[in-house]
Amino acid sequence: MSELLNFNYPPEPAVDRVTLFADVILPLPLPKLYTYRIPFEMNDEVLVGARVIVQFGAKRVLSCIVADIHENAPADYQAKYILDVLDDKPIVTAPQLKLFRWIADYYMCTIGEVINAALPSALKLSSESRIQLHPHFNPEEDDIPLASQEVKIIYALQQNPALTFTEIGNLLQVKSYHKYIKSLIQKEAIIIFEQVSDRFSPKVVKKIRLTEHFVQEEGMLEELFNQLATKPKQLDILLNYLQKVPVHQNIHLNAAGIEKSALANNPHLSKSSIDSLIKKGVLEQFDQIISRFPVDNTVPLQPMKLSEHQEQAKDEILGLFKEKDTVLLHGVTGSGKTEVYIDLIKHALEAGGQVLYLLPEIALTAQIVTRLMKVFGDKLGIYHSKFSDNERAEVWQGVLSGRFQMVVGVRSAVFLPFHNLSLIIVDEEHEPSYKQYDPAPRYNARETALMMAHLQGAKTLLGSATPSIETYYNCKTNRWGLVTMSKRFGEAQLPAIELINVREEQHRKNMHNHFSGKLVTAIEERLARHEQVILFQNRRGYAPFISCDECSWIPKCRNCAVSLSYHKYNNELRCHYCGYHERMPHDCPACGATTLKSMGFGTEKVEDDLKLMLPNAEVQRMDLDTTKKKNSYQQIIADFESGKTNVLIGTQMVTKGLDFENVSLVGILNADSIIHFPDFRAHERAYQLFVQVSGRAGRKGKPGTVLIQTRDPLQPIFRKVHSNDYTSLYEHEIEERMRFGYPPFTRMIRITVKHADEKISENAAIVLAKDLTDQLGAQLVLGPEVPYIFKIRNLFLNEIHVKLPRENVNLRAAKQAIAKVIQQLYLLPDFKGVRVVADVDPA
Question: pTM for the complete prediction?
Answer without folding.
Answer: 0.80
